[in-house]
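[User]
If only I could read backbone structure tokens as easily as an amino acid sequence. I have put the entry right below:
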Amino acid sequence: MADQSPEWKPKARPTSIVALNFSAALDDIFNLGPSGELAMNVEQKKNEVKSHEQKLQELDNRIRQANEQLKRLESKHRRMQSENILSSRGRRSQHNTSSSDSEGTTYTDRHSSPTSDTADR
């Protein structure tokens, strides 16, 4: 145990044919293949990941732009609704003043009875 300091490295030993065959069998079982092929597979996967990251960034940008456009349209819609409400109120008030008779009483003034208010009390 005292020999296993951080600087300690095992001595290089010659590899037996049995060990080489066992290693090759494990590589075949787990489809590892030679290290060059493995490195190519790793590089290919890295490229695929980069490509997918770029696609995700593009989609994220498109979603962000769509959200901004939606906010602008919602704001415009709310503004137009308020303008419509204000203009319809203005039309109603103009209509009420234009429907008054020669004495200045409006339709509602002519049809409400002042005696009915006092009679209920």
